[in-house]
Design a protein that fits this description.
10k-s Protein, Hypothetical Protein A, Chain A
């Protein structure tokens, strides 16, 4: 029911991703991601804070905890959206998925003010498009 609602919202929502971005993502998937923008959903974490958690590695318990929380956040999005926004048969490690998100955040600094949920979905959809089946 929730996914049906999100699809309906996608059909009526133009989205708020205004930064120039031309990804290899199908228009339907991009519309779904746009519908998830922070004006549609509340923002728990933005791209700036997630990126800071991923790059601020110090030899302290706080830094380790912060990095682990970022990895858990990314892992949750990967598990939740696999098959809906991107396609992954498996065989990926958490380190690989985190690296994909971290590289996306590094390469798109002008978009880091967006919700981290949206940016993670965009990174994963770019890395593993739903239209391409893995071999």
């Amino acid at each position: 029911m929730k996914r049906c609602f999100l699809i309906l919202v996608t059909l009526f929502c133009l989205g708020n991703l205004t930064a120039k971005y031309d990804p290899p993502i199908s228009p339907e998937v991009l519309d779904y991601i746009k519908a998830q923008d922070e004006k549609t959903l509340g923002v728990f974490k933005d791209g700036n804070s997630l990126y800071a958690m991923l790059i601020d590695l110090k030899d302290t318990p706080e830094s380790a905890l912060s990095y682990a929380m970022a990895c858990g956040y990314i892992s949750g999005i990967f598990d939740c959206e696999n098959g809906m926004v991107f396609f992954s048969l498996g065989g990926k490690t958490l380190v690989q998925v985190v690296d994909v998100v971290k590289k996306f955040l590094k390469d798109h600094p002008s978009m880091r003010h967006k919700g981290a949920f949206v940016l993670c979905m965009m990174a994963m959809a770019e890395a593993w498009p739903i239209l391409e089946k893995e071999e």
